[in-house]
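in:
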C-alpha cells in the first residue's frame, strides 16, 4: 500500500525516518504541491496533520486516514469520502505532558508567580501572605486528556470538576470556577464555547488555560475580558492562527501567556508505531485502531 505523508508544519522527514526504522518495506510519498492526479490516485493511505485545500477530493483510492496527532478536526474535511476511516494517535506520555503544562500554568497563576517575576525586575524583595493552593478548577473535557489533567491538578491541591456535554449547564460550573481548563475536541458544538458570555459567567480574577484548539476561544472576547480586568489572564498553548503572526493582538496583553503548541507532542517514533500497527491491520482486511466517530468529530 502506498502512503502519502502530509505532516506540515512538521517536516515529513522525521516521520519517514521513524516509519522506515520499523517498517522498511512501506511505500512512502512525502506531499508536494505538484503531485499529479495519477500520483494521488495511487495513494491508499494518508498520514497527516491537515489536508491542503482540494487534496482529499483527489484521492479516489483512499482507504484510511491516520492523523499524526490526537485531534483530527483538520482532516474531517467535507471532500473526504464518507467510507474512509480516520484514526487518531492515543499517547499516554502526551496526555501526561499536557497535564504537566496545565499544572504549571495553574500553579503559576494560583501562587501569584507573575507578581514575583515583576518584583524581581524591580529588584523588590517583598513578601505577601501565601497559602497552599485550593482553587476550584473546571476541566472541560473528560476524555483521554481531560481525565489525566484532572487527576494531576487534584494531586497538587486544586478542587477539580470535570465537564462534558452531558454535564450540568456550563455557565453554572464556570460561575464556581477560578480556573477553567479547555481540553475538549474541536467540533461544531465546541467551537467558540469560551466567549464573552462564558467569561462573564466566571468570577472576577478568573483564569483560562487552553490546551485544546485555538478556535474554542473567542480571542477578541478573551482579550476584552482580560483588558477590562474581569479576568486575571490566560495561558494559551493553542491559538486561532498557528503559527501566530507577529502582529497578533494576543502577544501583548498583560496577563496572557502564549506558548507555540508545545504543551506536549507525540514523538515521531510513537506516531510511527501506531501508524504501522494500523496499516498492518488494514493489510489484513481489519479496521485500524483508534478510529474516530466522523459524525461526532472525535
Ligand atoms: C494535537 C497533537 O492534536 O499535538 O494537538 O497531537
Amino acid at each position: 500500500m502506498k502512503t502519502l505523508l502530509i505532516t506540515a508544519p512538521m517536516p515529513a522527514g522525521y516521520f519517514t525516518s521513524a516509519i522506515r526504522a520499523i517498517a522498511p518495506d512501506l511505500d512512502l510519498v512525502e506531499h508536494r504541491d505538484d503531485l499529479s492526479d495519477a500520483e494521488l490516485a495511487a495513494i491508499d493511505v494518508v498520514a497527516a496533520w491537515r489536508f491542503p485545500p482540494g487534496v482529499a477530493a483527489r484521492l479516489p483510492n483512499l482507504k484510511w486516514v491516520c492523523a499524526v496527532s490526537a485531534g483530527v478536526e483538520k482532516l474531517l474535511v467535507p471532500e473526504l469520502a464518507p467510507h474512509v476511516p480516520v484514526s487518531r494517535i492515543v499517547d499516554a506520555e502526551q496526555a501526561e505532558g499536557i497535564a504537566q503544562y496545565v499544572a504549571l500554568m495553574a500553579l503559576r497563576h494560583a501562587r501569584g508567580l507573575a507578581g514575583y517575576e515583576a518584583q524581581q525586575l524591580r529588584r523588590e524583595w517583598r513578601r505577601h501572605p501565601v497559602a497552599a493552593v485550593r482553587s476550584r478548577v473546571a476541566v472541560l473535557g473528560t476524555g483521554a486528556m481531560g481525565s489525566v489533567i484532572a487527576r494531576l491538578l487534584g494531586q497538587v491541591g486544586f478542587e477539580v470538576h470535570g465537564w462534558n456535554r452531558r454535564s450540568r449547564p456550563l455557565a453554572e460550573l464556570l460561575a464556581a470556577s477560578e480556573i477553567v481548563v479547555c481540553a475538549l475536541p474541536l467540533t461544531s458544538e465546541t467551537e467558540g464555547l469560551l466567549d464573552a458570555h462564558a467569561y462573564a459567567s466566571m468570577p472576577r480574577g478568573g483564569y483560562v488555560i487552553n490546551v485544546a484548539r485555538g478556535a474554542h476561544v473567542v480571542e477578541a472576547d478573551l482579550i476584552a475580558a482580560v483588558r477590562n480586568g474581569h479576568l486575571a489572564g490566560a495561558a494559551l498553548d493553542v491559538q486561532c492562527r498557528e503559527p501566530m503572526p507577529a502582529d497578533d493582538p494576543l502577544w501583548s496583553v498583560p496577563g496572557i501567556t502564549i506558548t507555540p503548541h508545545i504543551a506536549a507532542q507525540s514523538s515521531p517514533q510513537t506516531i510511527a508505531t501506531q501508524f504501522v500497527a494500523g496499516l498492518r491491520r488494514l493489510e489484513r482486511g481489519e479496521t485500524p485502531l483508534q478510529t474516530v466517530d466522523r459524525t461526532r468529530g472525535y
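note: The chain has two domains: 2-91+266-283, 92-258.
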